[in-house]
Each structure stands twice: as C-alpha cells, then as structure tokens.
Amino acid sequence: MYLTNLISLAVPADEPRPLSALLEFAPGAMIWTWIAFLIGLVFMWKFVYGPITKALEDRDQKVEDSIKAAEVARQEAEAQMAEAKAELEKAQADSRRLVEEATANAERQAAEATRVAEERAKAELQKARDAIAAEKRSAVQEIRNEAVALTLAATSKLLQQNVDSEQNRKLVSDFVSSSGEGNS
Fold first, then answer.
1. Would you say the C-alpha torsion 157, 161, 166, 170 has a positive or negative sign?
2. pLDDT tens, position by position, 88-136
3. In Å, what is the CA distance from 86 to each residue of 89, 92, 97?
C-alpha cells in the first residue's frame, strides 16, 4: 500500500493528485521513512557531523593553544623586559660608579699635582733663600776682608809703620768678626 502510494506519487497519473495526499497517514511509508532517516543519520553522523565536530574541536584546541602560547610569550616578554630593565639599571649604576671613580681619581691627581707643585715651590724658595744667604755671607765676608784691609791701611798710616804681618791681619780679622757678630 505504501509502495503503491509512493508509486502513485512518483508517477504522474492522468489526473492530478492534490498536495494534501502527501499529508495522509501511511504507516508503511512512515516505517520506511524512519529507516531511511536512521540510515541517513548514521551516514551523516559518520561522514558529515563527525568530521565537522572534529574540525571544530581541533579549531577550539588550536585557539586555546594559541591563547596559552600568547600568554607564555607575554610572560616571557615581561621577563625579558624586566631583565633588560635590570641590565639597564645595572649599566646606569656602573656608569655612575665609573664617573664617581673618575672624578675621585681626578681630584686625587689634582691634589697630588698641587702638593708636588707646592713642594717644588717650597724647594725653589728654600734654594733661593739658601742662595741669598750664601751671597749674603759672601758679601759680608768680602766686606770684612775689605774692612780688615782698610783698617790695616789706616793703622799703617797712623803708626807710620808697615802693619802687614800675618799676625796683625789675624788680630784685626778676629776683631771685625766679633764686632760683626754682635751687630748681626
């Protein structure tokens, strides 16, 4: 009966059938429809829905993996940024330390140069003082010698004698020396 209904629906009859004939209840057609639906469902599940579901699950997994990879990359980038920041701070501290050391070294060198210059100036001043003192002694000695010679000459004229002996020269020289030391 179902078969005849299907055939009658599939093969056009001489007279047209109304569309309401499709909605008539036919138990045999219903069983075959269910069997075809279940076979189609199994086929669709195995060959269509399964691969689509698998592809969607794979895509979801790839998205989750990408999110995890992005999070790991972000954490690594933050760690590298923190490391770079620490290295930068260390480099800045090192440069500040080097500048401070260079400044301290320059100050030490300047102080040393000043000290050496002062020592040289003091040595030159002492040398000049010593030279002046030596010249002074030499001049005083020359004046003394001249005074002795003048004294001897004056005494010779006064006494009308030659007072040129070595003993008289020593006596006058001692006198001039002792009188010069008392005045100095």
1. negative
2. 999 999 999 999 999 999 999 999 999 999 999 999 999 999 999 998 8
3. 5, 10, 16
| DSSP reduced 3-state for 113 | helix
Angle between the N-to-C axes of helices 166-183 and 50-159, in degrees from 0 to 180, rounded to the nearest 10:
130
| pTM of the predicted structure, to 2 decimals | 0.38
Model pLDDT for residues 47-99, shown as the tens digit of each residue: 888 889 999 999 999 999 999 999 999 999 999 999 999 999 999 999 999 99
d(CA 41, CA 94): 75
Taking residues 139-157, report their average pLDDT.
79
> For the chain, what is the largest distance between any 2 Cα atoms, rounded to a whole number of angstroms?
198
Question: Which runs of consecutive H residues, i.e. helices, occur in the chain?
Answer: 2-10, 27-44, 50-159, 166-183
Q: What percent helix, strand, coil does the chain show, rounded to 5?
A: 90, 0, 10
Q: Which residue has the tokens 């592809």?
A: 55
> Within 13 Å and on the Cβ side, how many CA atoms surround 152?
19
CB under 8 Å, gap of 24 or more: what pairs does 127-136 form?
none
Span between the terminal Cα atoms of the chain, in Å: 166
